[in-house]
User: Fold this.
Amino acid sequence: MKKKKGGKEVAFRPQTIIEARYDLDRRQNDILDILLGIVGEGDDTEENTRYEIHIADVKHLYNLQDESNAYSYLQKAVKKFEGAGFRLKEDEGTDIYYPWFSKIKYQKKRGDEGRSKIVLDLHPEVKQMIMSAKQGAFYRIEYPLNLTKKYSKRLYYLLKDKENFNGGTFIISFSELRKMMKVPDSYANGNVKREILDKPYEEINGNTDISFEYDLIYEKLPSGQNSLGAVQFHVKKVKTNRTIVEYETIEKNGESIIATEEEQEIIDVFDCSIKEAKDILRTANANNRTKEQLFEILNYTKKKQVDNKVGYVLTILKNGYNEPTRLSGKQTNSWNNKDLDTTYSQMDFEAFEKQILSN
Assistant:
């Protein structure tokens, strides 16, 4: 039995699974990455097929502060595996279908979410496939975890598998790439290229430990027309200090809310939630405030002694630094008139925030 090294934050995905035909969304791939970080690690034995994913694993990987919603997220992602599997082509006349898990057990500890877990049983042949694989990709889970598109994740695994092969250069037929990623047959080649090449190119490069370029190889059809026949990839390792490119919070229903880079800037400066950052940015855009004005307001508000800082920011974004007309009936054109502490201290910011956001 081959032991995996690197700890639970490093996963090994065998080439057979990388090249198998399946359609997992980004969250399902996250669960698989977490599992592949455990398989073969530490005291794991060849006979063992049962693995536990604890809330602490998800909380750590997603930088979550609230454990109570993390279980709902985990359960939602894992439930999608029920009845799902992957298909391997053994030879021209034979292919094999494997379920991802032979058994899934959900264990929620009410009142003690930190001890909640989901127990996954691998099919014995799938476990053997992982442990006996001679080729595949080792990668830090943080990199695919932070890729937001499912095709970016699938391509990342393939590129990692090939990064040390022939100097990182390899060719794969376009039709095989489509089949591997389970792209619907109804998609035209132009749309497929955009989804499985162009978008991953923008996301993988600069946000992971590899970068890649690709060349399209065309072939002439009997009709005389040119058709996209294959793709040549060129992969190289890169050094990066960026380990988190996605920021999110988990709602009570298990759904996640992801922050854009603009919203994350607001979170970093103002120390607010993702929802509050989205509200602030939406209000700033609706009132044509520049980025400089927005961050001036955020920094100004941080110094104020007010109970509802978000409401304070939303009020200024809508009215400027002028006194709100509904209170004083006065309004000037001076953006930088900041002597309004008394007026703003009398505002019902919670009510005003709701008023602004309902518009």
Observations:
- DSSP finds 16 helices and twelve strands in the chain.
